[in-house]
Amino acid sequence: MRVRFAPSPTGYLHVGVARAALFNWLLARQQGGVFVLRVEDTDHARSTEAHTEAILHGLSWLGLDWDEGPIFQSDGLAGHQAAALRLLAEGKAYRDFTTTDLLKQEAARRGLESVRRLPRELSTELDPAEVERRVAAGESFAIRFRVPEGETAWDDLLHGELSFANADIEDLVLLRSDGSPTYNLAAVSDDADERITHVIRGDDHISNTPKQILLYRALGHAVPRFGHLPMILGPDGGRLSKRHGATAVQEYEDQGILPEALFNFLALLGWNPGDDREVMSKDEIVAEFSLERVQKKSAVFDNKKLSWMNGQHLARVDSHDLVSLVIARFDARGVASDRWRGREGWLVRLVDLLKVRARNLDDLAAMAEPYLSGPVDYEADSVAKHWAKEPATVAERIAELRGRLDDTPWERGALNEVTRSVAEALEIPAGKLIHPVRVAVTGRQHSPGIFDVLEMLGKERTLARLDRALRHLHTMK
Ligand code: GLU
Asked: How far is ligand 1, taken at its centre, from the CA of residue 6, in Å?
């Protein structure tokens, strides 16, 4: 099995296109096949190196490594031209001298705004002497494929038998008058060169497939199997586009989505493992993927589900691997590096505590901030809820606990015990002490278990934070 991913570097890596890459990659990995990467850069006006780089980066980030390539389609120009000239020599293609002027005349004759080509009888049946005369006179021409009569059918890997009447297929241009190849010629010529056995791509290419099959046959190449993947829709049923939110793989990376989560999510866009499993590792998906279980109807891209799935993956990833990602987020958030540098080991423990509540890496970085050194910002909501109603009483309670902490061994069991005994002595439920303390040491009303938090912060920092909170509470009276 030799499959390929053939992006055009005329834009960023769209998630729908990335899904096509993923399905090809999965097939190759599962069947011990070869995954070829071909950059279809023949549209010089719109292709850029920056787009190529972004696409390669997106694939690597997702973990879709390629075995051959990147092959740049523009390097194959001579081969594409040779294929067209061969078809011309064999009478399977013809020169089309249609000029823009002629097209305008034809449009006027038919009362249309514009026509893309002349009727066959006007463009194809030039007698050979006339063709020769025009070529000799230096007139420019395109080379068109002469679509034979009949019907073109194939057994689609997803849709089953599909067939098109050749009468409905226009005589497609192979080489434009400037000598540049069209997509269909270049794709067939390259797929044949690269000995591609399975062409898996989006449904939007179905109408190209009969043309390509005719070209394979005319050129005498073996026709590969074709499979067309359903489109991806936004939640409102429209084709997935910017108005639904992010569509570039890069945007998800920037949002703090993990590559394994996007991988998992894209795999489930149209495919399922046959049971209700949703959170799956890369290896599991490789082992279980099959085209038979790819549905034929469009798949809906649900951002909420992606966010949930990312949370699930965050909780599963080894915290050691998350730390450098979180540090990168700190840098982006402008959290001074001296607040974490040299404490990576400590950050692993912190990330371990926090990751189960985070939906993405930004969340995780934001949650980690209060635990770094530096003053705590007291969140207004949290203050209103746990301090503001009775600041004097809250201060007394915290002070009571503070007084006992100097001699408490700094470990969560002991911290738990002393906190409960203080609450008991004050004849209040432990929560009446724990919540205000949480605001004092983290500035927030939600955190991992408070005794884990105190242990993490360490004695010195906890005491300093309690003292600062006490001073603050006194100003609130
Ligand atoms: N460059 C084409 C695209 O991006 C490739 C289509 C194909 O896979 O043949 O749509």
From this structure: 5
16 and 233 in contact (C-beta within 8 Å)?
no
Q: Tokens standing for 118?
A: 């002349």
Question: H or E element: which one contains 425?
Answer: helix 412-426
> Three-state SS for 232?
strand
Residue nearest to atom 6 of ligand 1 (CA): 6
**Residue 209 CB–ligand 1 contact under 6 Å:** no
- Classified as helix, coil or strand, 5 is strand
> How confident is the model at residue 96, as a pLDDT?
87
The dihedral built from the CA positions of residue 355, 359, 361 and 367, taken in this order, carries a sign that is: negative
CA of residue 206 to ligand 1 center, whole Å: 11
Could you list the active site residues?
242
Is pTM beyond 0.90 here? no
| Distance of alpha carbon 165 from alpha carbon 168, whole angstroms | 6
CB–CB of 409/455 below 8 Å?
no
Ligand 1 atom with least separation from CA of 187: 9
pLDDT for 49-96, tens place per residue? 999 999 999 999 999 999 999 999 999 999 999 999 999 999 999 998
Q: How far is CA 266 from CA 236, 280, 348, in A?
A: 18, 11, 29
CA–CA distance, 17 with 4 (Å, rounded to integer)? 12
